[in-house]
# Entry
Amino acid sequence: MPSLPNKPLNPQELRLLLDTPARDRQKVFSGRSQKFLIQEAHRARQMYPVTSQARRDVLRARREAEKRNLQNRVSALEKENIRLQEELRLATHWPTVAKRPFSIRTTKKSKSEATAIALASDWHCEERVTKAQTNGLNEFNLKIFAKRTQTYFQNVLRLVRKERQNAEVKRLVFAVLGDMISGSIHADIAENTQLGVMDAVALAQDTLASGIDYWLKQQSDLNIVVVMTDDNHSRVTKQQRVATSHANSLAWLMGHSLQREFKNEPRVSFVRERAYHTYLKIHDTVVRFHHGHAIRYQGGVGGITIPVNKAIAAWNKARRADLDCFGHFHQLFNGANFSANGSLIGWNPFAISIKADYQAPQQSFLLIDSKRGRSGTFPIWL
# Structure
């Protein structure tokens, strides 16, 4: 590119020349010779000495800032070097310190003895539940009842076999805690059932008997203790009886029939009382079985725990128990001294009416260790 005439720069160009580093001047003022730009820079410094001094101050401040930044980086690198040297020292020293690696020894002790408990309650075998009644959360009919009970008996056996890996589980307490049928105690229930009362009793009894037979065939060395309690849905009276509850209970009749059905089977025994409570000592743990309808729950914010603990405290004054097992409330919940069973029917208008927490259909499985008492509680998913 040909050089431009060495025409003196105007005041604006002179200020620009002062603010431009010497190495970039020929790029900014293209076509001007370096000699010319040096002469013009000298003339500009004479014309604008303050601007020239300000520029030198800026350049000095930049150099000092770069110097401080460099010093900070050097300091940071020195600290990082010290840290890495310490890690290297510890790493090279570790093999001489850790001469004894931690190990878990295998014990040769024999398995402890334990008893399994399978809770069964609130099946309501003949009741119908539609998705419309539960906002799509649950559905129940005779076909679903058959499927869920089959799953129940299969999963109980799986849990027994699982616990046998760690303990000698020779006995299974099959606690049938009531409301296996819905009955006709209320008009809306009678309108919502798929079977008559007697047919429902027959279905529930046949299902229980089939489940016991299944366990006996699949696990021949298992002894089964059947506990059956009274309830509120199987009554044949309009109002719940107290003193004569069993005399008016289809659950009591069903238990009597089941007991006769297995009278020649030495591996099956029955425990049935004419009182509201059924007490059973399992190893050193006293378990009190009942349906749960004697516990008054009005939907308080504390859930069932407050009325349950009040009832247990009152009952323990007469005869103490270490553990209460009951159903009725359609919600699986375990406290320090009780185990509330869930329901096989699942979420239904009753659960909604008592403001119970939503739960999927489930029952409860417990393990009573001979030395430690209740050592495990597991849901039986259906």
